[in-house]
């Protein structure tokens, strides 16, 4: 059985409805070219992959061109790693043309969890397993990714921009992060530090590098209040100021 939902412009809740409505677990799930899935879609897939009957039947998962970042990639890989332990055949995963940091994917390849599917590998055969290795995932063309989007440094961004653009910090584990309009808890991946860039008013760019703990402490601070003229309007700016007391003799 094959579940082909490619080019459907799906949202994560729609994907969950399709997966839950399947009477039997499909052997092949095709989701490529659904950019609205993004990282939230990987959380939906991670929950679905944790079901025992899924790992027994699912052979292929295609999520290329789905706007997945490095954080979503790690969420998906970690879910497969937990579910596929003991399986005799790796899962065939196509996840190219997203916004994944190639160095993170290469780290999984070096650890032996991912086989980059060299010549001879297929959905039903793994060359590395024949040599004694135990990869859990076939990941062909994982090195072919789109350019990752730069993030504005939080200290120079407005509260609205900070909420909209802040990504999960670099590290390995669970930590709070800003997503959308509020704080969440999710996976963060990679090394201790991450470079971020921001453009000043003159157009020059400057690199920043700081640890996840510093970033966490910074984002626990409350957002600054907007100026009075934005609340009361320019015409009533004087009304916002407290009245001066008359001098008494």
Please tell me how large the radius of gyration is.
Answer: 23 Å
Cross-sheet strand order for the largest sheet: 1-2-3-4-6-5
Q: What name is given to the CATH topology of the largest domain?
A: Leucine-rich repeat, LRR (right-handed beta-alpha superhelix)
**CA-to-CA gap between the ends?**
93 Å
What proportion of the residues is helical, as a percent range?
25-40%
Text of the CATH class of the largest domain = Alpha Beta
Q: Report the total helices.
A: 10
Coarse shape: globular
Number of domains: 2
According to CATH, the homologous superfamily of the largest domain is Ribonuclease Inhibitor
Which structural category do the helix and sheet elements fall into? alpha/beta
Level-2 CATH architecture of the largest domain: Alpha-Beta Horseshoe
Beta-strand proportion: 15-25%
| Largest sheet composition | 6 strands, parallel
